[in-house]
Amino acid sequence: MPDQLIYAMEVFLNGLMAGVLYALVALGFVLIYKASGIFNYAQGVMALFAALTLVGIMEGQVPFSHLINAMFGTEIHHFGWHLPALVSILLTMAVMVLLAWAVNKLIFNHLVNQEPIILFMATIGLAYFMEGFGDIMWGADIKKLDVGLPQGINTAIDETTYGWFGYGFFIDNLDIVATVIAAILVIALVIFSQYTKQGRAMRAVADDHQAALSVGISLNFIWVMVWSLAGFVALVAGIMWGTKSGVQFSLSLIALKALPVLMLGGFTSIPGAIVGGLLIGVGEKLFEFSVGPLIGGATENWFAYVLALLFLVFRPQGLFGEKIIERV
Amino acid sequence: MKMKLIATALAAAVTAAPAMADLVFPSLSYRTGPYAAGGIPFADGYADYFTLLNERDGGIGGEKIQMPECETAYNTEKGVECYESTKGMGSLVYQPLSTGITYQLIPKVTADGIPMLTSGLGRTSAKNGAVFPWVFNFPANYWDGASVAVKHILDQEGGDISGKKIALVYHNSAYGKEPIRTLEELSKKHGYELSLIPVDHPGQEQKSQWLQIRRDRPDYVIMYGWGVMNQVAIQEAVNIRFPMDKFIGIWWSGSENDVKPAGDGANGYKALTFHNLGSDYPLYDDLKAHVFDKGLAAGAGDQHGTAIYNRGLYAAMLVAEAAKTAQEIHGTSQITPAMMRDGMEALEMTEEKMTALGLPKFGPEFTVSCENHGGNGFAAIGQWDASAGEWKLITDYMQSDQDIVQPLIEADSMAYADEAGITPACN
């Protein structure tokens, strides 16, 4: 088999894995948009905030310690504990639920019946607030995140493919774990939305707020639940991306990777986020591999958007999005 | 009532502004945003050195130092706003820790007559003081960095690198592209094969780049990165098992922040530096006694001894020494920005001077002149020791290949002069 074809296969597999990581971010957007029609600009910052909180809790960091020390002249930084990863994840999830409640209570309850653009702008404000809040709460230094996930080359795949092709494929163990977790997450979310009372209520709210309200569904509860779910997805994305690069403020920029995925997969479809992520991941990696060297490289960022725009021309609602027909 | 309010407001404004006799060194810092992890230690080091001079020596030449800090968030527009809002305070010199802000400020400082120091960053050809009279970039620049990296590789390979493969992984921006021409010229001279691997901002995802490196198997990788790009690149290098002692970053890819997320895997990673590392210097004893223990440390006080904190200290030390030189030249302690420029242009950093300052062997010796605003182009190599959790200098300061770098600086600066209608001149 020609070398270039073997390399392309490796790039293809890595593209799939990268796509899963993009999809993890996109899922959070989909959940909130589906249930409340809000395009949550703050989803990337939520991933950052969740990861910061997770590291802070795990390492026993005192929140707002810089502020406390500056105000009271104290020197407290740590509680002196190191919590197990699972306990820390559960506690972080509790914080994200609290955040979901606060966001709805303090922001969106006051914006009921407002135009989507107003709600979008509110999420921009929320993003900037949370970025600053996270900074004050946990500090701006880069934090190592280690929840025990494996990282580095998968030797089994490396050796097997070497046996087949005389060239061992590189697949990162972390990407494999991310794929498994994303698959479980999507299946769980689909089961939740299709087969549970709360899930059906969520879908009812997504279809028609007024009708859902008239049959006794609490909009407040559903919105807090959806934002909590998005917070959970943000936490998972934060763990995966934070393990790769350390937890730092650039983590909020991963939202930029989710936008073309949403444009391609549709804003309202959970499977769409996954398929969109995979298409973007594979598309950008193969383009960079085949065309990148001819035009100077670094094509991935813009090519993802070009790919998404091409799809938009033919399917404005995205691959799996709901077609909106407005009669005038 | 109205008059009373106006009087109160005026009084507040007067007390908030620095006294006219103070020496004003504004800090265009970034303690927020995606690059805060690099901006905070630099700003802390810069501030702590001036606080030390105020507390221990009563300032410079008897004049107290004021250091108004303005937050740029590493945003070029905000950086320019900070410059505009502080230049009227009698600012003596600017040190924006950003190549983007530097490029915007070059015409402004030139028009306003305020010197700017961009150690290890900014426009490399500003070394030619005949074209850029108000801009300085001593002791080393990006092209020096590229040349010293190749020099180190030559040392590692016994002086012959013909046929070797060197890959440049770079931030796909004006900054990241800076070393390309130098490395291309050096490849003609030494016969190595250069491959260019750009990484788009912010660099969170670099799988394609490192798969390419894994396929091409370069002998060495040089990196010009910043922010998250550094941490991801080092982690990806660990993942593909690239030998860390053959991976060399520029000084902006050589902080504790860059290596710690990769854990033990980052052990042996190398980075260039134009100042020494760690906290084992007499100056730190003074800092402890006069700044840290008095609760006067800038920021959270948790950056002492880190690579970029030391860079902030070094940056402040250089301008403080230039201010002293200016005071000596003009026979007055109350110097103006123009006098400060004269001091910078006559600056001479010797080992004797650094030892007297409590920083023995902290930086390279160099002299500045009108023709040479960039020093002598010396840099050294540091290596990360993961088990000790510290950077260690593993080489002496080496001079860049002046036969390659100097003609490039000449050509680029003259092209700028033609474009901007500047007649190069040295008095």
TrEMBL record, chain A:
InterPro entries linked: ABC_transp_permease, BCAA_transport_permease
Protein's cellular compartments: Cell membrane
GO cellular component: plasma membrane
Membrane topology category: Multi-pass membrane protein
Family, per entry: Belongs to the binding-protein-dependent transport system permease family. LivHM subfamily.
CDD domains documented for this protein: TM_PBP1_LivH_like (cd06582)
Annotated TM spans: 12-32, 38-58, 79-104, 116-134, 176-195, 215-241, 261-282
Highest taxon of source: Bacteria
One GO BP annotation of this record: amino acid transport
Organism whose genome encodes this protein: Lutimaribacter pacificus
Keywords from the named record: Amino-acid transport, Cell membrane, Membrane, Transmembrane, Transmembrane helix, Transport
Gene Ontology MF annotations: transmembrane transporter activity
One Pfam family from the record: BPD_transp_2
Name of this chain's protein: Amino acid/amide ABC transporter membrane protein 1, HAAT family
TrEMBL record, chain B:
SUPFAM superfamilies on file: Periplasmic binding protein-like I
Transmembrane region(s): none
UniProtKB keywords: Signal
PANTHER family recorded: BLR6548 PROTEIN (PTHR47235)
Protein name listed in UniProt: Amino acid/amide ABC transporter substrate-binding protein, HAAT family
Entry similarity comment: Belongs to the leucine-binding protein family.
Coiled coil (residue ranges): none
Organism: Lutimaribacter pacificus
Ranges of residues in domain Leucine-binding protein: 28-385
Region forming the signal peptide: 1-21
